[in-house]
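Two proteins follow. First one:
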Amino acid sequence: MSIAIWPPVGPEELIKGKQECLARELEWIVVETHTILKDIRHGLQDCYALLAPIDPGSTLVMSTQRNERVKGTVTRVGTRIIKGTIHLQLKTLPTQTLNLDASHPVHIAALETIHTHLTECLDLLSLTDTPTPSNNPTQLAAQLRIIAASLNESSSLLKGPALNEVDHSWQTDSCPPVHFTPALGPNISVHLGLQESSLVLWLRALEPVDSPVHFGTKLGLALGTVRRLEHDEMDRPFRFTYSTVTDGGQKHRHGTAHPRSSGSSPSGLGTPSSNGEATEVFVREKVRVESLPDPNLMSLSAKLVALGHTLASTRRNLAAVMGEEFDE
């Protein structure tokens, strides 16, 4: 089957007609894209509102299943944990209670990054929401590509790392003692993260590599009467230091010293970690606690995925009319 044009036109006129047709198609797809971007912008504003610091926030239960090694609650407002009380009955540490200092809320790094991405996306979309938006398809495609990358990364942060993936962020992102009342002991690491829109709390009992071992412990280990708790990080040295930016990015940096409930630590761990110097430690005990999914974070995740699909379809259509390859 062939297509014939009647009346016949010359090659030059045919090329000119194709160019005019392509120009009209580009003009049409640009207008349609701007219309869709208005809906995407409204959707991003809804996502932004889900991370807004609005009381009372979400109160999440943080407790281990089938035992009471860890039991308590935390309250998330926006990107921060503003309240929390967690009772610990770990096997290698004395029974204690962690109380979050209300004057030093913990900023969750993943949520802070998502908040930054949403802000950048809305700023970019504000450039297209003007009485005379740009009709340059190349510029529009570049803006859409940046927004798509931000949405994809935000969705990945809410999903969290794979369970079988090794995550060493605790070595540099653990909460420093300043966030707790009384101040956190130097032999414990408290690290917060996200997994499938749930809050994950990692607790690690630490021991300096150069800490002297009691003769009775050595003898018990040799005879088998004393056994270390088995986990995937046992008997391996790690370089550990507290986070210096957990009070919200560059808004506040912890000083070289931190409050302590008593004098110098017998373990020798607190001082070098508090001033930014890494310390070699062993992980004596490791506990992971995951809350139930946060309703607001679940809604945020669903909205981000839906917006990502809409944006991908829009980019694919624009690339097809422009005659370019669509880069996922």
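Second one, unrelated to the first:
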Amino acid sequence: MTDTLRISEVFLSIQGEGPSAGTPAHFVRLQGCDVGCRWCDTKYSWEFGGGREATPAAVIDEALALGAAPLLVVTGGEPLEHPGIAALLERGLAGWPRVEVETSGVAPPPLSHARLAWNVSPKLPAATGRWADTWRHTAAWLAEPNATFKIVVGDPPDPDDARRLVAEHRLPSGRVMLMPEGLTDEAVRRHALALAELCLREGFRLSPRLHVWMWGVRRGV
């Protein structure tokens, strides 16, 4: 039996955050997430019964029909809550030079490949009541060489919590990116200025949010 997926949207855009920021990319947004971050800018992708059903093969064909791009980004929702995620990634690796997955890290990696990158975004206590669940599989993610830890940070106590949790879980500073929380360009800039100081002190990297800067909060970008 072929695993089907719940799809929120498929589109062509620019990767706005993480290690590949600025790269043209196809996006496959999967439907369904129960992590429930208060600041989430894609809450329309939370409901597991929403979106539409499709096979991994059909989703890949739909994305490729949009035009050329060197990167496939699988996001959500929470991709790791889909039984068909491994099949989707295997097909993605056959169609793109590089594939990235955006995940909270709520489950361990289902697949490892030299051209498959994981942008793992464990949550801080102020974000959601399930924040601890997103740190539970940190050891498995540390063992995945292509995993980067991208932590969304807003107002205090977020910066202190981020530094504490990174230390507790022994995340190498070179694999940590701090990303400013915000749904407006002004909010992102305000948080980014504070995070720049923290990155300089701790050796973390700073992730932009180019999509907020360019388009604000919109679907399909």
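SUMMARY FIELD: The chain has one domain: 5-215. The two ends are 33 Å apart (CA to CA).
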